[in-house]
């Protein structure tokens, strides 16, 4: 890879992305930081809040997820929250500095859940009326559902690919990669911004990390935001149980360090320079200094608040102290 360029491309090859990913770490960080400053104010980091509006009871078999009915975890299913409860949570998030409010529901797809969907449309309208960006993650969507969400004022829809097409069947069998890409296409067609990323620590190889970025970077339009997660191993899930076995760490399960995260973020920043790269689940595993490394690599958004769906996360006060220390503006 030659000098630093920040051309927005959609024709990246896997070999080109692998070359970027494999750069000496100091060189990769320099290039990513340079590209980042071409498109973004490095002092600005968006704060987002993620709320589980319907927890547990999902029929999918995602091997990392605490909310699946197929796994014996600490999560107890709950009904969909009332609209007013959600709006009160959104107000608290806004008061704490969030500019985007994301609502997640644990199910495979909306399907024929008409009552729940109508409530969600009301939630979207209400949060939008507060002046917040509104995001949802509700599983698979058809084109008509995406259209209605857009009409209600939805800003973005999150639907992660998780990993490469090749490794995906080792992680999930109840929903295909093509299903996920179809939902992303429906969201894009409706005029909603796409939020789509993945998880490190699923037992993937470096080639799978490159493969995920290749899929994202060659979409007709790059995602508006790409969340990069580190697996939070939950006891009772297949990956959580495997992570408790020292031998499994040799297979890359839950074995993610700050350099892995920074390398993934930096590569994403270079190949998708206009995309917001969101430092997501797993931040509690990393020190302030390690998180700073990730921001230097090109991350410019976080999820704040003490919970990400069912996963622990730094509290608002911790993040505000970190922002003050680093000179960031939320």
Automatic annotation (TrEMBL):
Domain of life (superkingdom): Eukaryota
Domain Radical SAM core, residue spans: 43-274
Binding positions for [4Fe-4S] cluster per the UniProt entry: 58, 62, 65
Gene Ontology biological process terms, A to Z: biotin biosynthetic process
Cofactor (UniProt): [2Fe-2S] cluster; [4Fe-4S] cluster
GO molecular function, one term: 2 iron, 2 sulfur cluster binding
Binding note for cofactor: Binds 1 [2Fe-2S] cluster. The cluster is coordinated with 3 cysteines and 1 arginine. Binds 1 [4Fe-4S] cluster. The cluster is coordinated with 3 cysteines and an exchangeable S-adenosyl-L-methionine.
Protein's recorded name: biotin synthase
Species this protein is from: Thalassiosira pseudonana (Marine diatom)
